[in-house]
Design a protein that fits this description.
Blueprint: H1 7-13, E1 26-28, E2 34-36, H2 37-49, E3 70-71, H3 73-84, E4 104-106, E5 111-113, H4 115-119, E6 128-130, H5 131-185, H6 189-239, H7 243-246, H8 250-262, H9 271-291, E7 298-299, E8 308-309, E9 316-319, E10 341-343, E11 361-363
Antiparallel strand pairs: 1-2, 1-3, 4-5, 4-6, 7-10, 8-9, 9-11
Helix pairs in contact: 5-6, 5-8, 5-9, 6-8
């Protein structure tokens, strides 16, 4: 007697792998799998926002080609008819060999059987229990696994959120470092252009590494979360089924539970933080070095001639043709090309000092 196909298998084949519900407006992709149009569209949009490439099928990981969504009208009609069919268990609880009710469960072979099977030599020495009696301990184990898997999923969601926060924090830090670098190099552009390009290139590579690792981490975490969600949904649905259906393939189900718990979560590489901090220390050291070339010299006002202006906080001098109405003092120069320093990093400068100004504006930038 040929084995009958369980009704639940027919139902499962008519469900979307993403939402686990009956297919709605089903579409096929190039690998042959079918999804709800809304589910696969949202999946593709989320994938592109994460910057992942290439776009892969949620079921088989095959690459999805552009414009691969094709409406499957025939499948849509089949699904609608399946919804109207009475797929409640009928003769599925009968033994395929003897036609008797599957009221017993063999603990040795992990399978349901009828009274005739129990009396046969194959199961005579095995531990045999009533279905309900055998199902209860396994159901309790399964419920424990469900609780553990939910905790693990929550942990993975937390790791995903932490990964996103760290990525934003690192990118914010690298952005701040970029501003520091640009600000410092503007003062000595002629001498440090090559060094600036080198550091910005290193920073760009670090940005790309952060984004790449973040994308990889989020993708792997999303895959693990998706697999756990599918497994949890399957297990919760299995726990609601009659004992005869529940105990079908229970050993494999429990094995999958243990495999789901054994998977290690993906975290962003911890060495990234050290690399970001190391880069920050490099830019701090650079700032200290550049200050050696950016010392402020303040110009004294009294020694300047009547045709010399001192704008910008006494840090530059401008020669001007019109004479200024200034009092005649002993320390004032008669020549327009002479001026004096009031203060410098080397301490007070006393006496009479001369520097040729030339024409135009001369000075030092603020440090």
């Amino acid at each position: 007697m040929a084995a009958m196909i369980p009704a639940w298998e027919i139902q499962e084949e008519s469900k979307c792998p993403i939402c686990q519900d009956y297919l709605t407006d089903p579409v096929s992709i190039n690998c042959g799998h079918n999804f709800c149009r809304g589910c696969i569209t949202q999946y593709c949009e989320t994938w592109r926002k994460l910057g992942s490439d290439p776009l892969c099928c949620p079921s088989c990981r095959a690459r999805i080609q552009k414009g691969a969504l094709r409406s499957n009208y025939q499948l849509a009609n089949i699904v609608e008819k399946l919804k109207k069919l009475d797929l409640s268990p009928g003769n599925e609880n009968l033994c395929g060999r003897h036609g008797k009710g599957l009221d017993l469960f063999c603990e040795e072979d992990w399978e349901a059987m009828c009274v005739v099977c129990w009396r046969s030599s194959e199961h005579r020495s095995h531990k045999v229990l009533l279905l309900d009696e055998a199902a209860q301990p396994h159901k309790e184990k399964l419920q424990t696994h469900v609780a553990t898997l939910k905790e693990r999923r929550a942990k993975l969601l937390g790791l995903k959120e932490t990964s996103e926060q760290r990525s934003q924090q690192y990118l914010k830090q690298t952005g701040a470092e970029r501003e520091k670098i640009v600000a410092e190099f503007q003062q000595l552009r002629q001498f440090l252009e090559e060094q600036e390009r080198l550091l910005l290139a290193q920073l760009q590579r670090l940005d790309e590494e952060i984004r790449r690792l973040h994308t990889d981490t989020v993708t792997k975490l999303s895959e693990q979360i998706s697999r756990l969600s599918e497994l949890i949904g399957e297990l919760e649905g299995k726990c609601q089924k009659p004992a005869s259906e529940f105990l079908q393939d229970i050993r494999n189900t429990l094995s999958r539970c243990e495999e789901g718990q054994a998977q290690q979560p993906e975290e962003m590489a911890p060495e990234l933080e050290a690399r970001v901090q190391d880069f920050s220390q490099q830019t701090t050291a650079l700032s200290e070095s550049l200050r050696m070339f950016g010392d402020v010299v303040l110009l004294g006002g009294n020694p300047f001639s009547e045709r010399t202006l001192l704008p910008q906080k006494m840090r530059c001098a401008v020669w001007d043709k019109p004479r200024q109405p200034l009092p005649d003092t002993p320390e004032r120069f008669d020549s327009v090309s002479c001026w004096a320093v009031r203060a410098s990093p080397w301490g007070d400068i006393t006496g009479r000092w001369r520097w040729g100004m030339g024409d135009g504006l001369w000075g030092w930038p603020d440090s």
